[in-house]
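Extended Data, record Radical SAM core domain-containing protein
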Amino acid sequence: ILFNLEDGLIIETVVIPCDRGRTTVCVSSQVGCAMNCQFCYTGRMGLKRHLTAAEIVEQAVFARRLLTSEVGLITNVVFMGMGEPLHNIDNVIKAANIMVHEQGLHFSPRKVTVSTSGLVPQLKRFLNECNCALAVSLNATTDEVRNWIMPINRKYKLGLLLQTLREELRCKHKYKVLFEYVMLAGVNDSIEDAKRIVDLVQGIPCKINLISFNPHCGSQFRPTCKEKMIGFRNVLAESGLTVFLRLSRGDDQMAACGQLGKPGIVQAPLLRVPDRFQMAMELCP
């Protein structure tokens, strides 16, 4: 769904029909994004502006009103569209609280998930001020790789992010964070990476989504093959972790994870590929 905003800017919202009668609406929180994650098409846009709480909520309202008859009742909301939700934390918390309020959209807090690339101070505030679910884009098991593909890691290192989650979740009963892990062939998909994840998430109540990378124009990455994703998943599952494989939906319409938006003439920069990954990326199947 394309929304034309009052100032002429455009955002995208995606409705995702799932199995077992579940339908999810994926809402945007910003026009563009400032995080410049190297695998994300939205990040190429840079940040145009934050969305207001009303603009965020309206996406879910519109989907519920106009699409319920076609795809079924909207049961879940995920803040995983355009933008870094916690970069717009005031409006995102306000919007999320409206979505779960009994006089608002009255979703269960467990059915509303806010995602972040790892803004640590805002993450702490979110966990203290909002009862909705949290998803964290992990996507790498070392600072070297995460510094490259997710530049926010240069400010908030992997160790700090994970230790903050350990400390904050001690006070939240029956609360699990969802780790999202976009698999990039030759970059973060080795068995050694899988083993490191097992160590990294020790002491953090969590679930893990392994996500197939969705290629887009100008992308320097390639998706991990399904067989390798299954092997990666098996390492995690055998260690006792709860892990899911999330295969692409909507990639044929540039509506899948990491494909939203339309970069203009001026785009956020692609960062230099670390030397040791140059050959690995060239050899990707």
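Summary. The chain has one domain: 2-264.
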